[in-house]
Amino acid sequence: MSVESQSPATAAATAAGCPVHFEAAAPAAASGCPVRLDAAFGHEPYQTYRELQDAGPVQPVVLPDGSEAFMVTRFEDVRQCYFDHKRLSSNLEDAPKPPGADSAPPVGGLVLRRDEVSGHMMINQDPPIHTRLRKLLVQAFAAKRVTAMEPHIVRIANELIDNFRDSDRADLVSDFGKPLPVRVQSVLLGVSPAKQEQLIFDMDELTGGKDTETSQKALDRMKVLIAEEIERKRVEPAEDLLTSLVKAKEEDGRCEEIELLAAAIHVMTAGYFGVQGMIGNCMYWLLKDTEARAQLLANPDLRTTVMDEIFRLDGPQQPGSVRYALEDVEVGGAVIPKGSMVILSLGAASRDPRKFENPDVIDIFRENANDSIAMGAGVHYCLASRMANTEVGLACLTMLQTFPKLRLAVPDEELRWELRIPMRSLDHLPVLLR
Length: 434
Description:
Elements: H1 8-15, E1 35-36, H2 39-43, H3 46-55, E2 58-62, E3 68-72, H4 75-82, E4 88-89, H5 129-137, H6 143-162, E5 169-171, H7 172-177, H8 179-189, H9 196-207, H10 212-235, H11 241-250, H12 257-288, H13 290-298, H14 303-313, E6 321-325, E7 329-331, E8 334-336, E9 341-344, H15 346-349, H16 385-402, E10 407-408, E11 417-420, E12 423-426, E13 430-432
Parallel strand pairs: 1-2, 3-9
Antiparallel strand pairs: 2-3, 4-6, 5-13, 6-9, 7-8, 10-13, 11-12
């Protein structure tokens, strides 16, 4: 391979004397050789993050699909990069293209191909387009709207619990964590209850780590379903987000039809990815940390604080947010070459010992808890962070209050976290209810 045809990450690896095909594990961080983010990393990424932080501010990595990138892991560097959207772009059109290719491969290892919908999602845009699209959704996630959703969240949690209330065991991922966010987001959007089971199936197919074709077909079915619901709202408007989006297009002219569809699908998928993963993570940590669990049950008003701390400790977005370098960018004294894919690692930054004392433990009274960037920062701070915290917190609290003797049914060694970029989550969480 000639130097001219190499990607920036490959060129950097070659210059460092590393194997071009990146057959490297976590210890490679110390040598500057790329670290492969494989299944072992997905199961337990935090030791690798620490090695990457210790090795330097920017390190080359290889994603599961072979995509090459530079990862930023230290708290202050990640935070600064989040605010540098003029040089580090979120726009898919700026993604690096392999030599001789007409288009870039799926972003950062995502199994889905780029298409007209993903290209119009807010998360894949920079200001001013990002700003305009974000304004379409601001009211849906305002504090008043989130508070109004709380009774629906508790009702849905109890309805799901009813399915195993009289059993001795349950799987808090498949029985609870997966269906709950689909049903909650359906209420928020105004999706017909008759279509929710199809959405639950499609979301599972989409995120189940299956092949590209299976996942893409699931997304394509979702597009059709949501488009049908949008047409229904034109005839039967209601007090929901889909109706608000239709109004934004037809009465106010604030978005195009494709942007309307993209916004609705973004709300559904983002709400599912993060929440289903964090229900599993938060329940796991609350079952392991008896002190935090006892404090939450004794004082439910601590719910938001407890959730914020667990989101910091073991957040859903792994390995992090993808950006594209529009020019050479200096980060912490290291230079990320123009044209590179860049990963801003929220998971690593949230456990950076330079920022957080004893970062690997739950401390619900952490003095600098408000500095957490587990949900992003700047213009890309998660718009639905309040909703996610509320949804996960009420789901976990309802579960713990319903089953006071709830405990893990298997040893930790039998649990498995999987990396399904851009999220990391438990496959299963079997528990004993009594």
